[in-house]
Amino acid sequence: MEIRIIRLIIYLSFHFIFVTCSSVEESASQQTISINVDSIREYQMHEIFSNINLIPLETTEESTISEIKKLIFHEGKYYVLDYRAKAIFRFDASGRFLSKFQKIGKGPGEYLGIDDFIINPYSGNLEILQVDGIVIVYTLEGEFVKRFSIGSEVRSTQFFHIVSEDIIAFLSEYTENRLWLYSRSKNQVIKKLHEVPLFVGSDTPFKSINSPFYKHSKVMNFSEPHTRRVYTISLNGYSLKYAWDFGNDFDISMFPQGQTIEENVEFWQKSTKDYVSYFRYNLENDELIITFFAYNESYNLLLYKKESKTYRIVKNFKEGAVPDLIDFINEDKGVYSCVMAEDLHHFINEDVLSEKDKALWHRIDDLENPVIVQYYFND
């Protein structure tokens, strides 16, 4: 199933598969953030956002994107991973197409597929992750630099991110210890952390779509959809940063033992009416923590203000749109999302746009490239 289709189905239906919260190490420095789900309600878009901008990505024969998996903004340029095409497209800040990176094959400097990619903040290189744990490094101009493997022991890897100049964090969903820390200087995995029962990977086929890693204030953080906990990753391992507490949180221990995938899905679907579960992502800047969770047969966007410890939970918008999946958050009070053109009307109502963006809206064809949506929050 295409990732873009999965993104839309998650909003419009609860007939999908889910993994739940695991039991892992606690920390004395734990911060619990308590949330009252009774405050969930509809909002008008202007109550949440001061401005919404559209940036259509230029559609050409060479730049056509079919399946978005990841969006990165780096030094004034957007980098978009097309999972189906096994390619990374580069656009300028206005959406103008600049270049396409695609080197599929088994030869030197080539790759079999791209499960994730990052731009190394220390070297400036583009680093690509294959599912087998092999990382291929290129310059941003596409010149091959080197490749390395985190070892034959890993069954598969889904996401990775740079913790420091030396340490890389990997997510491996099919092992008991899902968080692997790799040292470039030692050329080996130095820690395996975050123990999760194997059935989460084997018997619950719904997997992470968004990266479990995000960086804020130069600190790497980690969370997964099946846990309400967020961790900080350091050179020494990881520790609990904070945990959401809704008072009615779904826990992995609620699953009856020995169930099939279908039975687990049915059990979870019934539980969503009463329990909070499935955290799509956690993101933050200096002012806000943002998460996206399932409850009462709906997905809900939670905006938590750090200083005042106040929050809003958006079920949907009165203009007829639903909260969007956020790809990343900037320090400029904005969040950015990349939406397929044909799905744009599900997330944005043209009445909330400026006259300039309304004109853009009407010129966008469903068959054109995705649109980057910039949301800026009210104070």
Characterization of this structure:
The protein starts with a helix and ends with a strand. It has helices at residues 3-12, 45-48, 199-202, 261-271, 344-347, 355-363; strands spanning 32-34, 41-43, 49-56, 68-74, 77-82, 87-92, 97-101, 116-119, 126-129, 134-138, 144-149, 159-162, 167-171, 177-183, 188-195, 213-216, 219-222, 229-234, 237-245, 282-284, 288-295, 298-305, 310-317, 328-329, 334-339, 371-377. With 379 residues, it is mostly beta strands. Helices cover 11% and strands 39% of the residues. The strands form six sheets. The chain has a five-stranded mixed beta sheet with strand order 1-19-18-17-16, with no helix packed on it. A five-stranded mixed beta sheet has the order 2-23-22-21-20. Strands 3-26-25-24 form a four-stranded antiparallel beta sheet. The radius of gyration is 20 Å and the shape is globular. The protein contains six helices and 26 strands.
